[in-house]
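User: For my dataset I need records formatted as: sequence, then structure tokens, nothing else. Please produce one.
Assistant:
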Amino acid sequence: MPKPPRNRRSNESPDVGIFDGLAAGLAEAGRAFYSRGWALGTSGNFSAVVAREPLRLAITASGVDKGSLTAGQFLQINHEGKPLGGQGKPSAEALLHISIARARRAGAVLHTHSVWSTLLSQTFAAEGGIELTGYEMLKGLEGVSTHQHREWLPILENSQDMRQLGGRVEVVLDRHPHSHGFLLRGHGLYTWGRDLAEARRHVEILEFLLEVLGRTHTADARPFGRRRGRPDSEAARPWPR
């Protein structure tokens, strides 16, 4: 009796149905972020967990335009960031997505490059982060039920060494277990959620709050970072935490 053909798929081979659904959802989110000015050109990268054990992610390929992002521009990577399927190479920041997915048990990780996140990450870098409080929109963050919540967005120095940066991300996430995101200085916002819908909501909430903070700051300063009616010695000071 002839033997049945061997299954050549490894334990890390893609689960096609799950992967395709996640890639389609991530592509739609990426195009929406582009339309809001949060991921222009090839900036930003997006991922979602295909499987937890062993860890596999669907993630954007490097160098793709987010305004015309399609499901075909995603590939699957393993827990080391190595590609398992799809075309192109993974985003250079794949290791950061892996670190966040592990540390927060996140189902999706989204990274945007808005004007406000870039500007504010520079302005408040000396503070080590940005405190957001007093805004009703904070209640859109998972687990938050009052505008009096104090959300701390840590700011990390940017780096092109992703292994070193990934290690620092893990330290910051451990130090701030209740934060819903963080900023890379001069770079942009990272946030996450238990699934893509929650992660996308967190992008919308945090980008809104960063824009409110930035617009408030600029309305009270000429030029950015200097307060009207204050001497230069005071105008140069960042807002207190």
